[in-house]
Amino acid sequence: MSLLQVENLKTHFFTEDGIVKAVDGVTFSVDRGETLGIVGESGCGKTMMALSLLRLIPDPPGKIVDGKIIYNSEDSKSVDLLSLNSRDIRNIRGKNIAMIFQEPMTSLNPVLTIGNQIGEAIKLHVGGSKKEVRDKTIDILKLVQIPGAEKRIDDYPYQLSGGMRQRAMIAMALSCRPDILIADEPTTALDVTIQAQILELILELQKKLGMAVILVTHDFGVVAEITDRVIVMYAGKFVETGKTKDVFASPQHPYTKGLLSSIPSLNHTGEKVKLKTIPGVVPDLRNLPKGCSFQDRCPKVQKKCRIEEPNLFAAGNEQKVRCFFPGEEI
Amino acid sequence: MTDLIKIKNIVKLFPLTGGFFGKSAGAVHAVNGVSLDIKKGETLGLVGESGSGKSTLGMLILRLIDADEGNIIFDGQDITKMNQKEMRKLRKQMQVIFQDPYASLNPRMTVGEIVEEPLLVHKIGNKKERMDRVRELISLVGLAKDAQGKYPHEFSGGQRQRVGIARAIALNPRFIIADEPVSALDVSIRGEIINLMNDLQAKFGLTYLFISHDLTIVAHTSSRIAVMYLGRLMESFPSTMMNAVLHPYTQALLSAVPIPDPTLKKKRIILSGDIPSPLKLPGGCVFNTRCKYANERCREEMPLFKEYADNCFAACHYINEMKPLGSSTHG
């Protein structure tokens, strides 16, 4: 039994201009100790999906209209997170499933010390005396390798560098030893040398604590370096899923192919080569075309693609692809 | 190839004032003695992490801010000594493309008006000539004809960046600074903008300074690459020499770039710590606090920026003892 099973999850936004189907029927699972990457361009619904898992969708205008999110905790109790009342879901958030966000400066409270903010989660979910909470906070700061944790605990977010703030965020997320860590673009706002530090840290902590990591990103490089499995999202749906090494070795969906080939290589031959691109833009989610959502940008679109919507078909190994004409050369 | 721009030992400090009566509280050393040449018709890539001073250097070259020391020679003329009137004339020849196409276009102006603006400022042509030029520019950057009457919000990020490029080339400049031109764009459309910039360069013989934090983008667009750290140049080299770089900072930067190939086993160099504050620079080599090879000499003596191989320059005392990273192995 998987740690988290998501079935046919649909998150829609009801706006004046129509219904935005940000997440439209996604099904996946994640196991203990596994790193799952969710990758896509801006507006593909990856962040909304991550927020839906913890029911953090702003309502109104957003609403989870269908689906199940089954969480199988250690004591083998299975719960559907969507059926919980607001008190019970609050007990899960931060304790069993924790989340880190993209911009550490805006997601930390600027007027509270980081010790205060990390301690709050511990106090809430684990409890203990003031001293115990403080000791635990220092431990967790040491775990995320913040130098001089005993002193840093009394720092305010503005006193920390970007990388240190993201470490503090991770410390906060890990303070109650969650089973699942959802990381939404955890390194996007950071410099590459700091990004390397943070990714290394997440991997190390995962090994140490045995948690599952769901990593949301737009960067295929990050996906290749740290994930075991990957999901490629487009217009609210999964277009390709599989083991990371399989998807990179033989991408089946024309969108995945296009994305992978549009990444410039580090090797420069001295000649100017044209970069490959995907023509067009992501379609308006309020007004998706009939049939496949990728049809207007697809180099091998057929009549069938404009009439019928493809399902996620199995494509060897554990790879799945939402395309009538997968694989074949473009 | 001759040099279009020669930068000589340029220094820019931003003084901090605080306390009673604006007492000086030190200064941010944004650019700290940089010398660099940009050849006619080339793309020079300038990479560095945030706070390395790469954008400040760009602003200094355009003289949007004044340097404290040093000279910038543009096509034989020292622009640091020019008065405002002369400078204004010269600015026709140097333009800039900004990072954020959402923030750098006036939302209340139509695309036609935005592209016409530089022509108006420099009083070029009459109404009809300007309109013809605007139409020409809009088709040059690959926008549809009807784009002229639309407002920026009606376009996607990639198209907006095309508008920014049309505005930049309106005056037939010779030199363009592109400051992170594709960082705000999705991967699948970055290529479009880079291809467009390359096409325009070939067509009009433009010279680019391409500023970016992303080594892969710079490797793709530039013929030479200069690496900045804490206001200083660490290394500069032809892009073809990417795998042979020797400076420990360039190597760390290179090895930190995530490569989209899960079978690749890289030797990752993880730099410890953060960039030191530019308020209080480390003595000696500015990289010594994060360099694993640093010794006493590095903490005391500042290394000179000198040629260690053909066209490869670096500021490191021990550059001749460094070994290249070596290609990563598949495993």
The class by helix and strand makeup of chain B works out as alpha/beta
Task: Note the total helix count of chain B.
Answer: 9
The biggest chain-chain interface is: A-B, 47 and 44 residues
Helix content of chain A: 25-40%
Examine the secondary-structure arrangement and name the CATH architecture of chain B: 3-Layer(aba) Sandwich
State the helix count of chain A. Answer: 12
Structure, briefly:
Chain A has twelve helices and twelve strands. Chain A has 330 residues and is of the alpha/beta class.
What does this structure look like?
The complex is a heterodimer of chains A (330) and B (331). Chain A is of the alpha/beta class and 330 residues long. Chain A contains twelve helices and twelve strands. In chain A, the strands form two sheets. In chain A, strands 6-7-8-3-9-10-12-11 form an eight-stranded mixed sheet, with helices on both faces. In chain A, strands 2-1-4-5 form a four-stranded antiparallel sheet. The longest helix of chain A is centred in the middle third of the chain and has 18 residues, at 192-209. Chain B has a single domain, classed as P-loop containing nucleotide triphosphate hydrolases (Rossmann fold, 3-Layer(aba) Sandwich), CATH 3.40.50.300. Chain B contains nine helices and 14 strands. The radius of gyration of chain B is 21 Å and the shape is globular. In chain B, strand 4 (69-74) and strand 5 form a beta hairpin. Chain B is of the alpha/beta class and 331 residues long. Chains A and B meet through helix 7, helix 8, helix 9, helix 10 and helix 11 of A and helix 6, helix 7 and helix 8 of B.
Which properties best describe this structure?
heterodimer, A: 330 residues, alpha/beta, 4-stranded antiparallel beta sheet, 12 helices, 12 strands, globular, B: 331 residues, Rossmann fold, 8-stranded mixed beta sheet, 9 helices
